[in-house]
């Protein structure tokens, strides 16, 4: 996972996405305004909850799991909003549909890359298990095997995952298309697009943080300028600045080779153990060896268990996006109502159209 540090490149300077979308004086009925306010207040609360309590909580697998769960909740919130809007698919502008379908494909590609990286890290756990088994004794042959397994681990985690090329490309496209299509004569359309913008912004930020944690690269961290007209803009900016600048970029500038904390703990224990396997077996103090192998066993198990749980959360998000996409396509084929499709899908397990 170790990568040369890339210079920080400012991301695209996004302006007001509604500059071309909402005409001045656009009217929202009290009902639509209430729906929009409820959605945005809920979104602001979810963004606030994503702010880590302390610096030690940033980029732990537990925080990443919470972030992925939060994305699932946000996408479900949009599902509920669409159902409340009662906006038939036949009234959806082609541009809205194209935006949604394209965005959903990109999110699926990103999820596939994350699942692939989690699987690759879990495969590396086999090397660590071999290391620990070969330290049960203290023979020269066992030391040689342990050294070989440590080398195997280091090479494995340093290996570039080719799926991240697709992941980075998908995030670039999502970022470039944050400006929303122009809405004419549709108050419900304005509410829908405003909500979808919020979902996309938070999804893009979380995905870019995940990509940095997994790849060890900060070059694709997004810096999104959200218009102040959104009630959740300040909360989003604070979260983005804290995680991206205060934590991730400062970690890389300090020379840390990995960003994911559980992986860094394993890497530290591997380095300590590797330093002593260079010596002859009979020269290594048994108590020292026992302590180092115990530390590695604990950190390796913590990483493995955390990855197992995160894999389930990523798969859940993948299924939500996939099922929501299928629901929309199904309604387009039969000319049904988008909110009806949302309700049918919800009864099958919660995914949404967004």
Describe the structure in your own words:
By secondary structure, the protein is an all-alpha fold. The chain has one domain (30-347). It has ten helices and no strands. It has helices at residues 30-50, 61-85, 94-133, 140-158, 163-176, 187-215, 233-253, 261-277, 286-334, 338-347. The longest helix has 49 residues, at 286-334. The protein starts with 29 loop residues before the first helix and ends in a 7-residue tail after the last helix. Mean pLDDT is 81; it is low at 1-25 and 336-354. It comes from Salvia divinorum (Maria pastora). InterPro entries: BPS1_pln. It holds the Pfam family BPS1.
List keywords for this structure.
single chain, 354 residues, mainly alpha, 0% strand, disordered N terminus, disordered C terminus, Protein BPS1, chloroplastic-like, BPS1_pln
**What shape does the CA trace take?**
elongated
The main pleated sheet reads as: none
Count of the domains:
1
Q: What letter string, H or E per element, gives the SSE order?
A: HHHHHHHHHH
Mean pLDDT: 81
Radius of gyration: 24 Å
Q: How many helical stretches?
A: 10
The low-confidence runs, each spanning 5 or more residues with pLDDT under 50, are: 1-25, 336-354
Task: State the distance separating the first and last CA atoms.
Answer: 33 Å
User: Structural class, judged by helices and strands?
Assistant: mainly alpha
Portion in helices: 55-70%
Binned strand content: under 5%
Number of strands: 0
